Every structure is written in structure tokens, then in C-alpha cells.
Amino acid sequence: MLIRKPADIAPSEITPPEVWRRRRDLLKGTLALAGLAALPGAGAALSADDGGETPTAIEHITQYNNFYEFGAGKRDPSIHAQALVTRPWSIRIDGECEAPREIGIEDILARYPQEERLYRLRCVEAWAMVIPWQGFPLASLLKDVRPTSRARYVAFETLHDPEQMPGQRRGVLDWPYREGLRIDEAMHPLTLLATGLYGETLPNQNGAPLRLVVPWKYGFKSIKSIVRISLVENQPVTAWNARQPGEYGFYANVNPAVDHPRWSQKTHRMIGEGLLAKPRETLPFNGYGEAVAPLYAGMDLRRFF
Ligand code: MTE
């Protein structure tokens, strides 16, 4: 498959927001007809922009990134990640499951029907974007490997290749980048493995060829360029939590009531609106509370932040 860089894609080829929105409405209709709109996941995903939220322009989504393997500046990934080779690419799914496997990205694309999901991405740095993703529920992939009863968490790993990822030659994090979810979070219908955005193959800087998207958590949970997914019994070590446990919790649910030690999480700014725009109020679970709050019933979310 030919992989095109965003720079090679003519603006005329990018799905314009109106067309995208029409398609989304169509999908909404289809889901309603199929009786699926009642699913907590489907409803919350498709109503994300009902409050008048428009998708962030593709230039911002692809030029304002966090991907430390390619540098710490927001523009660095859009420049340096272009050299990352994403075909062939395979993902190992192992650990506490009956049918572990290694599966190539082409097989993943052929096997799992791609859906469109408009999700807010809220970064811990108090900015946000609205991104039209393509992808499929992580649950579909996990069900296929048949997790055992000991699988209580899911651990994810990014490619470790300092040759291709110059940031890994520096000790910012203990590489490779690692993330984790509790099994019920991983199985939730809102949890997506993304393979594209705005109708195009996922740009390298956004985590090609496969990245996680967990819309109710701070952006650092959404690990990019995944090569390994392991079902595990104990809470896995995660990159930012290992680096600064007081600043980045394992759960990382978007929570305006729990400030980052160095700044407030009550509001955020939308990338693309400019610095003069009024900050937006941050909602618990990034606005997806109706769908996901039951996962945390009875938990002290200040302690488990
Ligand atoms: N995944 C890897 N492998 N390396 C990273 O540095 N940064 C995280 C997350 N996934 C990161 C990563 C952070 S902090 C955020 S906010 C999101 O990716 C940003 O995703 P985006 O650049 O597609 O908006």
C-alpha cells in the first residue's frame, strides 16, 4: 500500500468537514436503524460534536504533536517522523490469552472493519483538539486472542528503534514508550485502535500505523506506533507514570477537579482557535462521563488519578 505523507496530499483530497459531517450523520442514521445508537459507546462517540464542536483543521492535527521519539517540540514529529518505516509492520499480542499471535497491519486492516469516530483529545498540557479518526474497537482484537481469567490489565509498547527514532537516544523516558489500561477500560466500546484520520491513512506523526485512542483520558494514554499488546495480571509500568508519578497517574482520567501539580486542569484551549480565544471548561472524563463513569463506581478518583 502506498503511504502518503500529509505534505503529499493535496488539500482537495482531504475530506472537507461538511462532507465528513454528512457521512457522520449518515452513520448515525445507520446506527439508529440498526438499534445500535443506544450503545453507550456509539452514542457518546457520535454526539461528541453535537454541542457545535467542529473538527480541528488537519494542519493543526498533523503539525502540533507530542511524539517524543521524534523530538520534544510540537513541530518536531511532523518533520522527523516522516522517515519512520511503517510497512511492513506487525503487532504481537501475547500474555494471558489462549490464542496469542503476531498480526501484520495489512491483515488488521482487512480483518477489522474501520469505523469513523469524532473524538476530543484532551492533552494533560491543557489544550485539546477534535479529531475525526478511523479505527476499530480494541475489544475486537482482544476478543480474538481469548483473554484468560488472569488478564486484568492490558500493556502496550511502542516500537523501540533508536536508529529510526532519534528521541530514543536521549533519556527523556525509559524507552520504549509504554502504556496500560485496566481490562474493562480496554474492552470499552469507546476505546479505539486508530489507523487513520480525516479519511486518510494515519500520518506518521499521529502514530502510524496503529495507535490507541482513549477519549476520556489525558492524551498521553493514547500510545502511538504500537508493536506489542500484552494481557497481564498486574498493573503494568507506564512511561510517564514511571518518570514522574506525582504528575502522571496510571488512570489519567480527564478530571477538572484534580490539578496537575504545576497547573490547573479546569479549563483548556482548543488548538486552532488562537491564544486570545476564551478557554473552554474541561468536563469530567472529557465529556464522556455518561458512557464511562460506571467503570469507576466507588473509586476515589483523587487518589487514583
Ligand atoms: N506515544 C508515543 N509513543 N510517544 C509519545 O511521546 N505522546 C502522547 C500520546 N502518545 C506520545 C505518545 C501525548 S502526551 C499526547 S497528548 C498524544 O500522543 C498526542 O497525540 P497527537 O500528536 O496525535 O495529537
Verbal overview:
The protein is an alpha+beta fold and 305 residues long. The protein has one domain: Alpha-Beta Complex (Sulfite Oxidase, Chain A, domain 2). It is 20% helix and 21% strand. It has nine helices and twelve strands. It has helices at 17-33, 40-46, 58-63, 76-80, 105-111, 138-144, 183-186, 239-243, 289-292, and strands at residues 90-95, 101-104, 115-122, 127-137, 153-158, 178-182, 192-197, 200-201, 211-213, 226-232, 267-270, 280-281. The strands form two sheets. Strands 3, 4, 7, 8, 9, 11 and 12 form a seven-stranded mixed sheet that branches. It has a five-stranded mixed sheet with strand order 2-1-10-5-6. It is globular. Ligand MTE is lined by residues 65-69, 121, 123, 158, 177, 206-207, 219-220, 222-225.
Tally of DSSP helical segments = 9
Q: Which percent range fits the helix content?
A: 10-25%
Describe the biggest sheet?
A: 7 strands, mixed
Question: How many strands in all?
Answer: 12
The CATH superfamily is known as Oxidoreductase, molybdopterin-binding domain
Ligand species? ligand MTE
Q: Which features would summarize this protein structure in a list?
A:
9 helices, 7-stranded mixed β-sheet, binds ligand MTE, disordered N terminus, 21% strand, 5-stranded mixed β-sheet, globular, 305 residues, alpha+beta, Sulfite Oxidase, Chain A, domain 2
